[in-house]
Write a structure and sequence with these properties.
This protein has 276 residues and is an alpha+beta fold. It folds into two domains: 2-152, Type I PLP-dependent aspartate aminotransferase-like (Major domain) (Aspartate Aminotransferase, domain 2, 3-Layer(aba) Sandwich); 154-275, Alpha-Beta Complex (Aspartate Aminotransferase, domain 1), CATH 3.90.1150.10. The chain is 37% helix and 15% strand. The protein has helices at residues 2-9, 27-33, 56-65, 85-88, 137-152, 154-173, 201-207, 229-233, 238-242, 255-275, and strands at residues 40-44, 69-73, 92-96, 107-111, 178-180, 191-196, 215-216, 219-221, 224-226, 244-248. Strands 1-2-3-4 form a four-stranded mixed β-sheet, covered by helices on one side. It is globular, with a radius of gyration of 20 Å.
């Protein structure tokens, strides 16, 4: 959200689109929001907290019909779902290397032919004048190799992650205190977000940190926790949003890892209820 705040501070009008209870944008809302002076549409391809995949193809058609540049943030998607630029129809697409096992600190931006952008800082003419400064050669080479491997192993990784998240989802279905935020359909193969009634997500993450790496979307400062804006936009109550955790799987995880993680989570839930 910080780039949008910077644009507003510089005099641009920024319009935020609503999402439904699953966290999805309605393409009709995009169409209704466009003004005569709209110059850019920017939509995250898949959300980092819920894993929900936005209807990028439909939105790109709207942008193209209106002759408006369309950017999508694909940090969560490359290597996990199909990301063919021609099929997506985007003008700009950004990628984070470490999300597909490349070294941290390197990324990429796709620019459709004819699309030009200004550098975010001024200096030498590195990287076609877009980003001045000596290139991170080792990082770039690692990123390229990671992309090569991700393409080679795409089907295997997809099916592996889907198997693991399905195991988690099926386990949670039988527990009435756990509710999925989003949908098992139309989400990334490696990401689930759930609310666990009656627990503090931040406390769960902290207590289990030596057993399983989880994350919560809430931010705590000076002892006060604020619920995730992503989950609040999906109309979750503060209680549900503050009890939400994100579970992500990866190529190195096994079914045994998942079973151990589930056991740790269920043990925490039982202890939490006993306290009450």
């Amino acid at each position: 959200m910080m780039p949008l705040k910077r644009l507003r501070d510089n005099g641009y009008t920024v319009t935020l689109l609503p999402v439904d209870s699953k966290g999805l944008i309605n393409p009709d809302d995009v169409k209704k929001t466009i003004k005569k002076d709209t110059i850019l549409i920017s939509i995250m391809h898949a959300n980092n907290e819920t894993g929900m995949i936005q209807p990028i193809n439909e939105i790109s058609k709207i942008a193209r019909d209106k002759e408006i540049l369309f950017h999508s943030d694909g940090a969560q998607c490359v290597g996990k779902i199909e990301t063919n630029m021609d099929s997506l129809g985007v003008d700009l697409y950004t990628v984070a290397g470490h999300k597909l096992y490349a070294p941290k600190g390197v990324g990429a931006i796709f620019l459709k032919g004819g699309v030009k952008i200004s550098p975010f800082c001024i200096g030498a003419g590195h990287e076609k004048g877009i980003r001045p400064g000596t290139e991170n050669t080792i990082g770039i080479a690692g990123f390229g190799k990671a992309c090569e491997i991700a393409k080679r192993d795409f089907a295997e990784r997809y099916n592996h992650n889907k198997l693991l998240t399905s195991r988690i989802y099926e386990s949670f279905l039988s527990n009435l205190s756990i509710k999925l935020n989003g949908s098992i359909n139309g989400c990334l193969p490696n990401t689930l977000n759930v609310s666990i009634k009656g627990i503090s997500a931040n406390e769960l993450v902290y207590k289990l940190k030596d057993k399983v790496a989880l994350s919560s979307g809430s931010a705590c400062h000076s002892g006060v926790c604020k619920p995730s804006p992503v989950l609040k936009a999906m109309c979750l109550s503060d209680e549900d949003a503050l009890s939400a955790i994100r579970i992500s799987t990866g190529k190195e995880n096994s079914l045994e890892d998942i079973n151990l993680a589930l056991e740790a989570i269920y043990n925490f839930i039982q202890i939490g209820y006993k306290k009450k």
